[in-house]
Amino acid sequence: MLSGLSWPSLAVLMALGIALDLLLGEARRWHPLVGFGNLAKRIEGALNHAAALRLRGVLAWCLAVVPPVLACAWLIALLPGWLGALVHAALLYFCIGLRSLREHTLPIARALAQGDLPLARRLTSYIVSRDTRESSEGELAKAGVESLLENGNDAVFGTLFWFLVAGGPGALLFRLANTLDAMWGYRNARFLYFGWSAARIDDVLNWLPARLTAYSYAWLGQRRQALDCWKAQAPAWSSPNAGPVMAAGAGALGLALGGPAIYDGEVEERPPLGRGLPAQGPDIVRAWRLVAMSTALWLAVVCAVALLGLAIGAGAPHA
């Protein structure tokens, strides 16, 4: 492990970070990621101009991400063992967004259940970039389910994966890289070259977590259909990581997602995802449960590996 933590320590600290997130939710004031976003805006404003924009984008990414990650790793190394361990758990808490997913999506399901379409449209507009002003109940439900499935990887499982690889600094590295992709990774005139490195680095960091997420969704849902949808539909999706996650998740839930959506006033024909019935309000709750159960599955696997390691260590002969 790059973190230097044992599997038992990782299991305990991972459980603690998840518990803190579910108990406390996102910090309402002085959230580190908000401060990071403001820093990223300043760096982009200073460097996103003139020639050689890809090189400027690489420099900007390094200036934004490397110092805080190295600072946290240095702090952990400097502190006594148990204090350093708490910093690992605190970093995971600040980086993971499981409760945030629930708080941003389940109110949409409640609004739809109450027939309050204007409220559901407004709530959905907070979590997706598509135009929701004229969206129907089915379109809003589809947007909510898709957001849950995709952000389950970005806000939860990618963070957990890199926490297991490199502890708190690993979780921070992933979350900051993912944040920069969300801010700079657009294929438009402003970010086509400057944001190239942010998008590519996020793709690399997300490649394995996304596929583990897709397998998790498949394992806990309609497994064969999820794997078939992943194989057949993911290659048509523009994102190399969102495709497997969303196709497998839609197949696992037995839902037909994807298809047309309105962006900037124009209809975009997106490839199909999944197979089955169109999404409805209650399916948002089903998607949340799939993400929550997948989180429990990851934690259970880590705990099982930790217990196995302890058992092997206890049974090994002593010199």
Automatic annotation (TrEMBL):
Species this chain originates from: Herbaspirillum aquaticum
Pfam annotation, one family: CobD_Cbib
Entry's Gene Ontology cellular component terms: plasma membrane
Topology versus the membrane: Multi-pass membrane protein
Main location: membrane
Functional pathway: Cofactor biosynthesis; adenosylcobalamin biosynthesis
Family the UniProt entry places it in: Belongs to the CobD/CbiB family.
GO MF: ABC-type vitamin B12 transporter activity; threonine-phosphate decarboxylase activity
InterPro entries: Cobalamin_biosynth_CobD/CbiB
Name this protein carries in UniProt: Cobalamin biosynthesis protein CobD
Transmembrane segments: 6-24, 58-76, 296-316
Keywords: Cell membrane, Cobalamin biosynthesis, Membrane, Transmembrane, Transmembrane helix
The UniProt record lists the keyword Cell membrane: yes
PANTHER family linked to this entry: COBALAMIN BIOSYNTHESIS PROTEIN CBIB
Free-text function comment from the UniProt entry: Converts cobyric acid to cobinamide by the addition of aminopropanol on the F carboxylic group.
Location of this chain's protein in the cell: Cell membrane
GO biological process, one term: cobalamin biosynthetic process
